[in-house]
Amino acid sequence: MKGCVAVLAFMVFGAAVLVGVAIAVERRGTAKSEPLTGTTSEVELTDYEPKSHGRKKRHQGADIEYLYVAGGRTFQSSTWLSRTTLSDRVVCFDPDDPAVHAIRGNPQATCGEANHGETRRAVEVAAR
Fold first, then answer.
1. What averages of pLDDT result for each successive group of 10 residues across the chain (128 residues)?
2. Residue 54 CA to chain centroid, in angstroms?
3. DSSP assignment, residue 108?
4. Residue 77: which H helix or E strand, with range?
5. How many CB atoms lie within 10 A of CB 102?
6. What is the pTM of this model?
């Protein structure tokens, strides 16, 4: 009986390691240092929920969901943006993999090596 429990525990541990490796491989392509040289201002805010972040809730902003068009394809993602970056949005993306992107609130932002924001992976959706 003890041997069965040990084998089961080993199998559960092994499965957990495999899941962790799969997640790491999926996220590998979203480092902040990737060159996001593509730019699009075709950004549509689909959900907006005001929310404060940080110590003592001093950082005003909102949790948002958005769509953007890059390379003729539509992608969906979500993030928190500060109040100062909610108005005019631009998305910088990797032309080789448009799902890898960073959203910015400054339409004059230069896309490139310094992404000035968290790089994330979007999900491709059917065009609307």
1. 71 61 44 72 86 72 90 92 68 92 75 68 86
2. 20
3. T
4. strand 73-82
5. 23
6. 0.64
